[in-house]
Amino acid sequence: MWGKANLLNKRGAFRKNKAAILALGSTVFLIFIYTVLSANTFNNPTPSDGANITGTVVLNCTFDTSPLNITNTSFIYQNSSDIAMITNFSNDSGWIDGNFTYSWDTSTIADGLYTLICNATNSTPDHAALSLTNVRVDNNAPTLSSLVAHGKGNNTFLNGSSSILNVTATDGSGSSVTSILFNVSFNGVTNLSYTGVIATDLTTWGSLTFDASNLTDNAYNLTAIATDHVGLATTSGYITFTIDTVTPQISYNANGNIADNTNQTSATLTVNVSITDSGSAVNTTVLWLDGSANAATFEQLGNDYNTTVVLSEGRHTYFVRVNDTAGNYNITSTRTVTYDNTAPSLTYAAQAIANGANQSTSTVTFAFNV
Question: Model confidence over 270-299: pLDDT tens digits?
Fold first, then answer.
């Protein structure tokens, strides 16, 4: 990382500091270096430790007392792949009474971590000191993608209860995403704004559970705004979702069904229902038989839905559940059917008269086991 230190040394910048700088290895810091008489030290340099910077920033090195014999000051930036002079001052420009200041346009370099070096030399450089801080350059707003509502993309339906909003927000080598705002709007007017929960720091899903129960049935636009630590923000494109709180209506048809509590000798059970939904339309129709969802498929003809299943012998209960696209549902009443295709067995009881017996009375009593 410090392979160009010799180049800077030719300018008298690192004579006594070179060994200390080499010892830092690849660690990235904001470093303010000066070579003056030992009485001089730096007060808090700017940018400050751990700063995220963007656009044009003011670089400043300030001695705690008036500097002695200063002949040159310079600001230098360096990262893992590049090193360059930001500016170079002689003793009659860029600094006044030990206050070295320069406005630096960071938009000319890539986002990322940098080492900044404030270097001051005097005519007889005998002493050196280091002041260490971190900086990150960030001139690019976060990017947004994969905006979804309730696990679905554009043109989805929600039923007005709790729903999950998700978006992918990344900030590359920048200062990282600090907030994600979800805006819900209708006819251009924002109805709801929610701040999402950020899962990680640099590459993140912003997610939020929100209660849409105060939204009336209608179509809405959803956008997300991601902001990073330096205030750069990006607004996503919008997706549309529709609130549908209307419950689908379902009932047994008068024809095509057996009555409740029917006993039958046929193993076939036919179920015919009528379903209407004025909202997001029917999504699934399921027959529940004996407490479990049955795999039988319903055939649709207009508003009528019918299916046929084969029963095992015995008593059975059933109902039909319908779900619309928004997640609203309804069920029919529960009915009972008994399938019995086994004839009863009949035998004489032990106390019955014997076959071919003679008796003196005119009354004959028969006893059977059923």
Answer: 999 999 999 889 999 999 999 999 999 999
